[in-house]
Write a structure and sequence with these properties.
The protein is an alpha+beta fold. The protein is built from 13 helices and 19 strands. The strands form 4 sheets. A 6-stranded antiparallel β-sheet has the order 1-2-3-4-6-5. Strands 9, 10, 15, 17, 18 and 19 form a 6-stranded antiparallel β-sheet that branches. Helix 4 (about 120-140) packs antiparallel against helix 7 (about 200-220), helix 4 (about 120-140) runs antiparallel to helix 10 (about 265-275) and helix 7 packs antiparallel against helix 9 (about 245-255).
Length: about 550
């Protein structure tokens, strides 16, 4: 399993009540992440093009020296036109809250790729080194030093890497905020001179690139990912730990990680060294096959599916007799373990019961479908009904019956949540391949066969855990009470992706009937690629 890097947040969280809805004339649609400098939003130009817009922290915005430096660095960044950088498209250096907008890249960060899929092959790492080195050429030509090059600041697109956040960290270095105990940058990827507070030069970015490449090739940073003080000490005084890095890469990365700046290669020399490497064979091309299949499938899914560019989810007008409750904003996506994957869930996972549920205790959970992580769930008032016998013929359904099941009628006298209380809400989870399943109890993505109450997926459908009950709603609303009635009267044993179009949710009830998960399909990449769901969990009270 890959190491965790402190301070990394994952993409596409719904805007909170405290977030603005417009900055500099650009519509904001979601949070892409946050860090030491501020918050990054997914926004749209007036013509509908997506951009990444970073708004700096309020305490930075109130510092005159920071604002002066920020304006200088933005002016320099606007001169950077590298093919492997995210182009600056606009800025607001004089705004009450300064901001910077760059081209939006619908791909994961290198940190996310390693976290989900594990270390990358030697050839992929070499191509990444060459591409990032070319980005550094463009950055350094503009008189800018990145200062915070790390896996979370490199996005992966189908045609190569994109370096983001170049140079802006320098504006904060000169402010009063960089006093005792405060540094701009990430300790595990800092150069020794930066860790000691000495002059930072383009060679400092080359050191950071060496650390980044070691992380991508070995799964852990070469100076550890523990406490900042320990990482800073190792960066300055100890040699990098490259034991997990393949031998074919060690000499190149050791060159980048020289303690003295003059001992490191320039970006030009790095590109030449990659070209001469036998694994590359003089062909520096980001063509088909430069990434492992599971990574390219994830990127293709982000480009082709709606969640790559979140759009508002239309919410139908509720029936007048229904009470409604809006759930909280989606939780941050859960980290995916990096382990070997299998092409399909095992037969034991696909096997489903064909009659009345057995009284076996199990864990429960639900996945909720949203577009772009901004959906709303509605609760309906429905009384519980006695358990009904499940016809054996229903086991053969792979999609809703020709005559869709009818949602139970709400009753004004029933409790608003039918005796259930909310657990976690709107957790957006992504299974990169069929070897990962959703742990409904905890709201996490785990390797197959590790969760008791799970939701698995194939290339075309969801598979629920043994002895759980499932029900597909007929509309866009599904409450715990609806689920109870639905699983007793119109249960399903398979849930095809094709049956979930138009925002239709489904639910799963645990074998002990004490937990319910409501799930919406966010996206499903073709060919067995990543599948993203949104899940809300409810537990029975009393």
């Amino acid at each position: 399993m890959s190491a965790q890097i402190p301070g990394v947040q994952h993409a596409h969280k719904a805007l909170s009540a405290d977030d603005p809805h417009e900055i500099g004339g650009y519509r904001l649609h979601a949070r892409l992440g946050s860090g030491g400098m501020g918050v990054v939003y997914l926004a749209y130009t007036p013509g509908g093009r997506p951009i990444a817009l970073k708004a700096v922290r309020a305490d930075f915005a109130g510092d005159p020296e920071f604002r002066r430096r920020f304006a200088q660095e933005v002016a320099s960044a606007e001169r950077i036109h590298g093919l492997f950088t995210a182009q600056v498209v606009d800025s607001g250096v004089d705004a009450p809250t300064p901001w910077l907008a760059t081209a939006y890249v619908p791909g994961p960060t290198l940190h996310e790729v390693v976290q989900r899929h594990g270390p990358l092959p030697v050839r992929t790492v070499l191509l990444l080194v060459a591409g990032i080195a070319e980005a550094l050429q463009a950055i350094h030509r503009a008189g800018v030093v990145h200062r915070d090059l790390k896996p979370a600041n490199v996005l992966i697109a189908e045609d190569g890497p994109r370096v983001i956040d170049f140079g802006i960290a320098r504006a904060a270095d000169a402010t009063a905020l960089t006093g005792v105990g405060l540094r701009i940058g990430t300790a595990a990827f800092m150069a020794p001179e930066q860790a000691m507070g000495l002059q930072v030069t383009p060679a400092s970015d080359v050191f950071a690139l060496g650390s980044l490449a070691a992380f991508v090739a070995g799964g852990v940073p070469p100076f550890g990912a523990g406490a900042e003080s320990a990482a800073l000490y190792k960066v300055v005084h100890e040699q990098p730990d490259l034991t997990r890095v393949p031998h074919d890469l060690r000499s190149l990365l050791t060159w980048c990680l020289a303690k003295r700046p003059e001992g490191r290669p320039t970006p030009d020399e790095l590109i030449s060294a990659v070209q001469a490497h036998p694994t590359v064979g003089h062909r520096l091309e980001f063509a088909d096959g430069w990434l492992p299949h599971q990574v390219s499938s994830e990127i293709s899914g982000r480009v082709q599916q709606p969640d790559a560019v979140p759009v508002p989810v239309p919410v139908p007008a509720p029936t007048p007799t229904h009470d409604r409750l809006t759930l909280a904003a989606p939780a941050a996506p859960v980290a995916h373990p990096a382990t070997a994957v299998r092409p399909d869930p095992p037969a034991s996972r696909r096997a489903r019961r064909r009659g009345r549920r057995l009284p076996v205790t199990a864990l429960a959970a639900v996945s909720v479908l949203v577009l772009g992580g901004a959906a709303t769930a509605w609760f309906l008032d429905v009384p519980e009904e006695p358990e009904a016998e499940v016809p054996a013929a229903s086991a053969g359904h792979t999609s809703p019956p020709a005559s869709p099941p009818v949602s139970p009628s709400p009753s004004p006298s029933a409790p608003s949540s039918a005796g259930f209380k909310a657990g976690y809400a709107n957790a957006e989870l992504t299974s990169p391949e069929a070897g990962y399943e959703f742990d409904l109890k905890t709201g996490k993505v785990v390797p197959a066969e590790t969760a008791a109450w799970y939701l698995a997926r194939t290339q075309t459908e969801f598979v629920t855990s043994e002895d759980s009950d499932a029900f597909i709603a007929t509309g866009n609303e599904l409450s715990p009470a609806d689920c109870v009635r639905g699983v007793e009267t119109q249960p399903v044993t398979t849930i095809a992706f094709s049956a979930l179009s138009g925002g239709r949710p489904f639910c799963i009830r645990s074998a002990d009937q004490k937990e319910i998960a409501v799930v919406r399909l966010v996206s499903a990449a073709p060919g067995g690629g990543p599948v993203t769901v949104e899940v809300s969990h409810h537990r029975k009270t009393g």
